[in-house]
Amino acid sequence: xxxxxxxxxxxxxxxxxxxxxxxxxxxxxxxxxxxxxxxxxxxxxxxxxxxxxxxxxxxxxxxxxxxxxxxxxxxxxxxxxxxxxxxxxxxxxxxxxxxxxxxxxxxxxxxxxxx
Length: 115
Description:
About 40% of the residues lie in helices and about 0% in strands.
């Protein structure tokens, strides 16, 4: 509901049943955006500890069938950052590197150096 209010109604964009269907290209999407910055210190004390407690609780829940653990916002990104650190860089699929090197050749610039 908050997303509909902030992005649709306050953003003077489509909301609820007025948002076009994903595969309805004949109509402008008119999707609104809203960015909110909140200072948690302006509210109750102990935000970091209470948020950590909630995240730990969520991570400790029973995972859905087929999954080995529950992830919270930021967990996949931290895991990817750790992988990049351990590998000494960002892993790119071989076909992407091949295509970028073809473009480099076409443009007459040096191909990518990989590690």
